[in-house]
Design a protein that fits this description.
The chain is elongated and about 60 Å long. It contains three helices and twelve strands; from the N terminus they run E-E-H-E-E-E-H-E-H-E-E-E-E-E-E. 10% of the residues lie in helices and 46% in strands.
């Protein structure tokens, strides 16, 4: 069973022990559909889920006042891989993209996805080339032709000079 980080407690809300969560995904579905969540290494039942200004707010069992919520601040939140909600066709979890082979349209292997940067306007694949150099490829239709989850390959069309940076 693998634990997957889905958020971090960043603040407290009110006096009754609710915590504000920075959510690492674009959905709150994992919080709504999972009865229990790991707060650090401790498995805790989720009593209530809501949003406040695009932030997830949780009421967790055993955190019943502001002081205990303050003590939980900074804790990472995890679910197990069994609790991951299914994704629509053509969408992938970052953990599934890492390690995929990246090929050019002509079939030449460029390298392997080592990271997916998500704090920009669009996701960016970090690809390690055979010479250990890393390049960044935006996940936009102009560059990404196909992502094949079953063969674990991404087909790309690069602009001239991208590999020379």
């Amino acid at each position: 069973m693998e634990k997957i980080k889905i958020g971090k407690i960043v603040n407290v809300v009110g006096l009754k022990g609710e915590v504000k969560v920075y959510n690492y995904s674009d959905s709150i579905q994992a919080y709504e559909e999972t009865p229990e969540i790991y707060v650090g290494d401790k498995l805790v039942r989720i009593e209530k889920v809501r949003t406040q200004k695009n932030m997830v707010v949780l009421k967790l069992e055993g955190i019943n006042d502001r002081d205990s919520a303050e003590r939980a601040r900074g804790s990472d939140l995890f679910i197990t891989d069994l609790d991951l909600p299914p994704l629509p066709e053509g969408q992938f979890y970052v953990r599934d993209l890492i390690g995929m082979i990246v090929r050019e349209e002509d079939g030449n292997v460029l390298g392997i996805v080592t990271d997916v940067i998500q704090n920009t306007a669009q996701d960016i694949f970090e690809v390690e080339l055979e010479n250990r150099k890393k390049v960044l490829i935006p996940k936009v239709d102009q560059f990404i032709m196909d992502i094949d989850g079953s063969s674990r390959q991404i087909t790309v069309r690069l602009i001239d000079g991208l590999l020379d940076l």
